[in-house]
Each structure stands twice: as C-alpha cells, then as structure tokens.
Amino acid sequence: MSAMTRRQAIGRGMAAAASLTVADRLLAATGDNEALAALKGAFAKPGYGPLQREAGKPLALPKGFHYVRFGRAGDRMSDGILTPPCHDGTGYFKGRGNTVWIARNHEGFHPGRAPGRRNAYDRVAQGGVTVSHFDTGAGNLRGSALVLNGTDNNCNGGATPWGTWLSGEENTVGPDQGFEKKHGYVFEVPARATSTVEPVPIKAMGRFVHEACPVDPKSGIVYMTEDNGDPGDGFYRYLPDHRGKLHRGGKLQMLKIEGKPGFNTVSESKHGKTWECEWVDIDDPDPNGADDYPQAVYMQGRHKGAAKFSGLEGGTFAKGSCYFTASDGGPSGQGQVWRYTPDNRKLKRGELELVLASPRGRVLNNPDGIAVSPRDGIVLCEDGESEDIDGRRSFMRGITPDGELFDFLEVTEKMPLHDHIGDSLYPKVDKRRWDRPPRKGPIGASETAGPGFSPDGKWLFFHVQYPGETFAVTGPWSKGWL
After folding, report:
1. Residue 312 contacts residue 226 (beta carbons within 8 Å)
2. What is the Cα–Cα distance from 30 to 46, expressed in whole angstroms?
3. Strand-pair category, 127-135 with 99-106
4. What residues form DSSP beta bridges with 357?
5. What is the mean pLDDT of the chain?
6. What pLDDT is attached to residue 345?
7. Which one is predicted more confidently, 19 or 466?
8. Is the pLDDT of residue 434 over 50?
9. Which domains does the chain have, with CATH numbers?
10. By the 8 A CB rule, do 430 and 436 touch?
11. Is the pLDDT of residue 210 over 80?
C-alpha cells in the first residue's frame, strides 16, 4: 500500500500528538503566519522513498541507507557464553567516544544451553539480558556479555536517566509451574555491565505481565505497560520513594479516566481525542496466587475504576510524554498508539491522547516496539501477521509529525516461524546450534523488535527477533523525519 493511501487512512491525527514542531514554536514566538505557511510546506516532506530489495539481503531499506548486523543467536560473546535467541526490548546508552552500550532483553534461552548458576535468579527460568558495546565510528561490535540470568520471558523494559536498564518479565509463573522462584517482576541492571549481576526483583513495581518501563527523566517516575490479554491490560506508573533508587520502595498506581470509571479504551478510534486522567493506588503490588492468576494486580485497579487497554506493549518517554502501543486495540483489533502527558504541576493529573488507531492490518498491523526519533518522527515495529502466515511480511513503519505513515524497512529474509517463545521454547530446534530455527512450520519473516536511536541520532538499532540478530542502520536521516 502506498504512503499516500496510508496517510489518507490514518488522517492527520499525529499532528496533535507530535511534540512542538519548529513551525509551532516560531508562530508562538512571532505570530508570523507567512513563516508558518512556509514551514508547513517543508513539514509535509514524505518518507525516504521506495524500499530497495536485493536478492540475498535480509533487509529492504530506502536508497542511501545501509546496515551492520551483529549479535546473532549462537555467536560466542566475550564472556564465552553463546548469544541467546529471541531478542526483544532494548535500551541504548552513550559510551565514550563514538560508542553505544546496548542492554538487550532475551525472551528465552535454548533448553539445555542456559548459563546455569552464573548468578541465576532461578535456574529453571529461560530468560535474561545481555549487554553489547558497539562502536558507531567503526561500525562494529567491541564486546558483549550476559548480565542478567535466570529471569523468565524478558520482553520489554526501559532505559533510566541514571544509566540502568529495567527489564520486565512477561509472565507470572512460579513454584506452581515448577519454577524455583516467583516471576513477573522488573529487574534493574547497569547498562555498562560486563558480567552477570546479582538479580534482585523490584517487587514494589508489581507482579504482573510486564512489558515496557519508560522513565520520565524529570520526575523519575516509571510508566509501565501490561500485555495480559483477557480480560484486559492496565497502564501503570511507579512513584519511587527516592528518585533513582527504585529498590528502596515506592507506590504502584494504575491509570483512570477522570469522570469515567472503568472506561474501555479498546473501541476508541478518533485520532487526537483526549481525556483527563487521574491515578488509583494498587494496594497489593505483589499478590499471592499470581502464579495461576496473572490478572491479580490488574483487577485491583479495575475495581477502583481504572481504564482498560488491550495488548499494551512498547513504550518510550520522549519530549515530555510517554508514548505507548496497544497492539490489539481499536475497533479493528489492529492496534492503537497512545500518548500520556503528565501534568508537572499536579502529580495526580495528566492527559491521555489517542495518536492513531489502525483501521485494518494493511495500514498498520499490531504495533509493538516504539521509538521517537531526534527528528520528531516515530518508529513502529509491527507484531502482527498477514492473513496467510506463509506469506507473512514484516515491516518497520515510520510516522511523520504530519500524520503520514510510511514503510521504512522490511525484513525480507524468510524462515520457519513458531508460536510464541514463552509457550514452547523452540521444541523442534536443532540442539547443536541456537541459530537454527525449527525445520517445520509456516514460512515468513520474523517481526522486528527493540527499536532505538544512538545518543547522537545517527544510528537506528533494532532486532530481527527470531531466532535473534541485531541490526544498526544509518543513512540520510535529514531527508525525512526519522
């Protein structure tokens, strides 16, 4: 589908959701309508042109862009451990010179190949975090290592302004399912760690089906998404008692629409619509019985009138707002993108805005990972699949502040796919290698995950999730909004 068709389908709702543009700032400062009109002409510049597909290449990108690939599942890391598969949510941190530290979640390790007792929180669990050190000047990997071990189904998280990565577990399994310990927590690891750290769950942040954990750099408040499924998902925040010291306690709260107790956001589709918000306290963030009842935290909030979302996944804090995706939201079930802006004068208040709702899968197919570019555009990773999974196509989309949705990247490398890693952990994988996917199953392109820009804005990092590989893309960013 062409970019113009996508723009017509989405409308121009993103204009309201974008941060203040150059034109807005100029008009506010001078009232110069002629300058505003001129800038709005430039504001409508399109994406980066058609994707260039080349035989044997795993990615299709616009002309002028190129990539470096590294961190493939099965590659030996600097600590001697093989790179785990199933790359997911990731944080990117400035290093010395032209280097970037990359803290990367892994939803699962290969059965029988997990790193055993290396500071394992739970030896039965199959997830964790690796950290890589990448040189953007040379375009190569300097080193990598396992830093968080023995957690389970580490899906998404958030980078903190104090230089750590928050990694969330996407299930609440525990001893009832044969694990050594309870899961469903957030763990914090130093972004520049080079070996395994002592894993300590932050229980005050809640035991639920965690996804993203973006942090407001001004207040230190952590916002959190939940991908619980039925009966619904909540949007949370954690108010730490001490900024930057999350382990020292805090208060967990869930979003409520003011004057609309129990509001269901799932059916909303009007771009740019806003709601005034407040927050309700979660009295028991670490409830007993969550092994068998993952909704235990969510239902506490619902009983107090908190709002319902569907499939909350990716999230990022940028330009004073928290942007997050509802992968299954909207009347079509194909996804929504939301923005929450806190009221810095009144801690209990804020505004929720619907950035967009996909009318159908061919426009936007279940958005998951999200990143905001230094140039004000938004990157979205799709988590859906086509009607015929054997022909599945996997895209990364871009959104201009003008509301135009365009294709920025396609994964063209096809391979056998499998059900979610949390269900079966590669049951048919060749046990000699981590980088060999199941031999049987539908053929398609893996989803992309973990998008984010280097601190200097010159590189876009992301992963092809299954079996797992990291890519760094650079090119003529100034020609568009990404």
Report:
1. yes
2. 27
3. antiparallel
4. 336
5. 85
6. 82
7. 466
8. no
9. 3-479 (2.120.10.30)
10. yes
11. yes
Q: Does position 143 have pLDDT exceeding 90, yes or no?
A: yes
Nearest residue to 380 via CA among 362, 365, 367, 366: 367
Matching residue, tokens 């061919």:
362
Kind of pairing between the strands at 469-474 and 274-281: unpaired
Q: Which residues have CB under 8 Å from 298's CB, separation 6+? A: 208, 226, 228, 231, 232, 233, 234, 254
pLDDT tens, 92-113?
A: 999 999 999 999 999 988 655 6
Residues whose CB falls within 8 Å of the CB of residue 281, separated by 6 or more in sequence, listed in order: 251, 252, 253, 304
> For the segment 325-363, what is each residue's pLDDT rounded down to a tens digit?
999 999 999 999 999 999 988 888 999 999 999 998 888
130: Cβ contacts below 8 Å, ≥ 6 apart: 71, 77, 83, 84, 103, 104, 106, 144, 145, 146, 147
Greater confidence, 233 or 385? 233
pLDDT tens for 52-72 read: 999 889 999 999 999 999 999
Predicted local distance difference test score (pLDDT) of residue 373: 96
CA–CA dist 166, 152 (Å, integer): 14
